[in-house]
Amino acid sequence: MSKSVKVIFLLIAVLAGMPARAGALLFPEGEGQLILTTTFSDASNAYDSQGRLLKTPSYRKFELDGYVEYGAKDWLTVVGQGGGMDFQGSTSAPAPLSTSPAPRYAGVGLGALGARVKLGEIGGYYFSLEGSIRAASHAAETYLDMKDFLQVDARVQMFHALEAWGLPAFLDAQLGYRSRGQSGDEIRADLTLGVRPRPDVLLMAQSFTAIAPWPTSASSFAAQKFEVSGVYDLNRTFSVQIGVVYAPFGLNSPAERGIVSALWTRF
């Protein structure tokens, strides 16, 4: 197995689901939401350092994730995240990932706690700042985008309501910094376009980008994922979501694909 393929497979395991659920808007004081998400994903190809698609050892991954937002004050929303994962690599995986023939991890995944504060509004564009501390066990960090068991994530967020194809819509954009990814500190850029074709249906197209501009190793790293999903409001309290996610571009990152489902509850 070539060195470049080995590097790619090491990065395959560390890329947890990128889709972020936080938005730039804050919740009113005393209100919030909880989103429980399941993701089934796999990959048998990856992008090398030139962005070319290569055949690599395959893996399958299941993730269960909980994400909560709560308006502690009108100007402050508290956010938290936690969950677990089951990662199963193929028997052709390189030894550095595990002492067993096939790398495997089943247990607690990422935990995070943070807060979002309002920055202001300019011409219908709402801005906020969010920071969080992310943590994982030493056993789990091998399968997450974490060089150490602690990370810091800070991002500026923007929300804008608009009209698309004659329908109510919104744009949410986030630009951030995350410390100590597997390939070094990362720049994160997330975009969400949401459209409501009817009052109880929300369609979303999302892009999630991670780039390590100052890699700690000789290998560069970039990952791009797109997610398309629909959210259906069962009532004023509960909603369900179903979607697909795929990585069409990257550098030393997996060509992952998956199915995402979620239950949203507002309180």
Concise structural overview:
With 267 residues, the chain is mainly beta. Helix content is 6%, strand content 66%.
Question: What does it look like?
Answer:
The protein has helices at residues 3-14, 138-141, and strands at 32-47, 53-73, 76-89, 104-122, 125-135, 150-164, 167-181, 184-198, 201-212, 221-233, 238-251, 253-254, 257-266. It is 6% helix and 66% strand. The relative contact order is 0.19. It has one domain. A 12-stranded antiparallel barrel has the order 1-2-3-4-5-6-7-8-9-10-11-13. It is mainly beta.
Features:
mainly beta; 2 helices; globular
Rg on CA atoms, Å: 19 Å
Q: Number of DSSP helices?
A: 2
Q: What average pLDDT do the residues reach?
A: 87
Number of distinct beta strands: 13
How are the secondary structure elements laid out?
Blueprint: H1 3-14, E1 32-47, E2 53-73, E3 76-89, E4 104-122, E5 125-135, H2 138-141, E6 150-164, E7 167-181, E8 184-198, E9 201-212, E10 221-233, E11 238-251, E12 253-254, E13 257-266
Antiparallel strand pairs: 1-2, 1-12, 1-13, 2-3, 3-4, 4-5, 5-6, 6-7, 7-8, 8-9, 9-10, 10-11, 11-13
